[in-house]
Structures are given as structure tokens and as C-alpha cells.
Amino acid sequence: MMDFLKNKFVIGIAVVALAGIAWWGMSGGGATAPLLTTDTPTTASDVELVTTLLTLRAVTLNGTIFTDPAFMSLKDFGKEIVPEPVGRPNPFAPLSASAQQTGTQGAQVLNRDTARIFAQPKAGQQ
Predict the structure, then answer these.
(1) 20, 12 in Cβ contact below 8 A?
(2) Which has more pLDDT, 67 or 33?
């Protein structure tokens, strides 16, 4: 039991010592260094930008532009959107069981059709 209390006492002293070291390290002890700052000269473009921003800040928007005759004389050249039927819920689902066939047969049909398209017509045929 005595060893347990002795170990507790040593651990307590170690925790207090570590807390003191951490406080001393974080307090910075001594004079603080000045922050790094740089002085840059103000250019004409900077002044122009600031004056433009201040001018824009003074702008107020209201709805009087919509009653102006110039605005009323504008014509709408937009196109009417025609409603179309909605497609399938899952466009990637197969259409039927025939859609699950292998692609080689489709390639053969494609090749036969393309051969017919690009073949020279025989004499007397069109």
C-alpha cells in the first residue's frame, strides 16, 4: 500500500512539473518580437480601384427601370419551350430480352448493311 501512495506522489509531482514546463514554454518569457510588416507605396491603379469601388457602393437599385419607356419598348426574342413526354424511369435498363443478346450478331448486320451501302451497283441494278 505504501508503494502505491509513493508512486501516486511521484506521478503527481511529474504532472505538476510538466504543467510548469508547458506554461513556461508557452508564455514566451521575454520581449515579444514585432509582427512582420511591409510598407508598399500606393500606386495610381490602387487609388483608381478604391475610387471605383466607392462609386459602386453608392449605387442604389430600384424598380423604376422596369417602367422606363426604353425598357418597355424591348422585344422578347425568346423561343417557347414545347413540353415533351417524359422518358423512361431508368434509361439504362434494357428495352427487352432481345436487347441482352451478344453484340456480335449486331456487328454482322452492321457489316452486311454497310457493305451493301458502299458496294458498286451491278450493271442494270440500282
Answers:
(1) no
(2) 67
